[in-house]
């Protein structure tokens, strides 16, 4: 299994390109199941999670063509054609779903177009139990009959799903996406209240509109969908990844560097840029994206609470914790989305960070310098927070179990090295 070795202490200077958003792509790809025509997705990132979704769709019978070549598992690159004209199976098997929770996003579209779906229940994961009960209750409100059988969600619609008024008791990104896709082919109007407003949900909605769906309220907490009988072909480009953007913004700040993030969408970054500015970094919108400058900054502590969009994203919490571990003064980080998302804390502490966790909050007392260590990643964002800490630390840091990193960050070591970081991937030989 690969490891990443870093010699810290180099201020990053230069340009980092930002790719398409993983979480948007993971919702856009299953949208192809809603039509027999071809959906073309551009700006797809090259990531392990995208390959997992490509495998799952292939297994349902979707034909994938990457940049003119036919492919399956490795079909993740810049532009991908997805054709669900000949679906051969409506079952999403355990082996693929357990690798990635977002696999459950095939449920809504399969049920809407074929009136049936059998999807393995995603299990727990490193950051909490993460049930899908809200997805299922909402689909039941649209007339689906759902039973759990042998670890599978077995859903049947017996014809078209019916429009319904759905109020999510809690904001759920995946739940909103599943329902939105299902409702596009429903009979009549569906209203989704307390819908997730994440830009990735809006991206899915805009793509569905390009496919012929009728959706109002995109980007707001109330989505109104008039079901149509069929959707058609479309070409759509995936929104830039705001979490990748935020992660490299922290890389610039934690190394007291100066980096331009090219291709980033400044307008989607407000909660993150506010926190970084409060800490003392300078952030400017540029014609190509945004620039983060901290070479003359004294980074100071601040308090953060994770919230649904437009609040501060839980997917940036671990990265900010690494930064605040090097800031002047104390900070409090409160995690309100996932109950077990402080797994990076003991690893950061191995690098000299001073952090106390009390329930859903962590007090971080900044230290002048972290020190390099051998550390282990437990999930995607935790692993990148250890890379960030390593970039700032004195001496050598080795991050183990980087397969988590490859799920969500494309060529991370190349992008950082191009800005001067001393970072390398050590291939294979080491076990985790
Ligand atoms: C998505 C993102 C993930 C991000 C999260 C929150 C993708 C592929 N993943 O995950 O990176 O961290 O949004 O922004 O887009 N919940 C329930 N029952 C449900 C559904 C959710 O209790 O049926 C709970 C979850 O356990 C969690 C909270 O609701 O505590 C929010 O989860 P949700 O927004 O659904 O996250 P995901 O869509 O899984």
Give short descriptive properties of this protein.
5-stranded mixed beta sheet, binds uridine-diphosphate-N-acetylglucosamine, 432 residues, 4-stranded mixed beta sheet, 14 helices, elongated, alpha+beta
Report on this model:
This protein is of the alpha+beta class and 432 residues long. The chain is built from 14 helices and 25 strands. The protein starts with a strand and ends in a 6-residue tail after the last strand. Uridine-diphosphate-N-acetylglucosamine (UD1) binds next to helix 1, helix 5 and helix 6.
Give a concise summary.
The chain has 14 helices and 25 strands.
The counted number of beta strands is 25
Largest sheet, spatial ordering of strands: 5-4-6-3-15
Radius of gyration: 21 Å
Helix content: 25-40%
Gap between N and C termini: 6 Å
Our count of helices gives: 14
User: What small ligands are held by the chains?
Assistant: uridine-diphosphate-N-acetylglucosamine
The whole-number mean of residue pLDDT values reads 94
Coarse morphology:
elongated
Structural class: alpha+beta
Strand content: 25-35%
Main β-sheet, in a few words?
5 strands, mixed
| Low-confidence sequence ranges | 69-77
